[in-house]
Fold this sequence. Notes:
By secondary structure, the protein is mainly alpha-helical. It has seven helices and no strands.
Amino acid sequence: MARRAALPAALKLEDxxxxxxxxxxxxxxxxxxxxxxxxxxxxxxxxxxxxxxxIRRIDESDLRSSFFLLTSLEATFRIxxxxxxxxxxxxxxxxxxxxxxRNPRLPPRLEEDILxxxxxxxAAHGKTIGxxxxxFKYRHWLAHGRYWEPKLGRKYDFEGLRLLAEAVISALxxxx
Length: 176
C-alpha cells in the first residue's frame, strides 16, 4: 500500500465558534444604527424590514456555521480512522477499522463503517453516536442545497451542535 501523506488537523471547534460569533456580531453592527452607512444601505426600508433581514442573515450564518462544524467533526473521525489504521493499534475500534480498510471499496463510509465501528466497540457511547448520526443527516441536507423538507426528528442549531460535538470529542478516545 502506498504511504500516505501526513494528515492535517481538522478545524478546531473553538475556532469555528469564534468565527460564528464574529460574523453574527458583524451582522448586528452592519444592520444596527451605529453603522455609519446605515441610512444609505437601508434607504426606503422600514426598521421592521431591516430587523427581518438581520434575522434572516443570522439564521443563514447559523446554518453555515453548523455545516462547517459538522464537516470538521467528520474530518476528525476520518483522520482518526486513518491514524488508527496507520499505527496498527490493537484496540477493538482500530481492528474494526483495519478490516474495513482491507475492503477494496474506498473510501470508508462515515455512518456505516466509521460511526458503526465506534458504536459497536464503544457501546457506552452508543447514545451519543446515535445523536451524531441524526446531526449528520442534517449536514447531508445542508450539503445538498436544502431543496427538500428534511425529516430529522428534531430541530438543529449551531449552539446545540457545538455542544454535541464537544461531547463527542471529549467522550471518544481519538488518536493523536
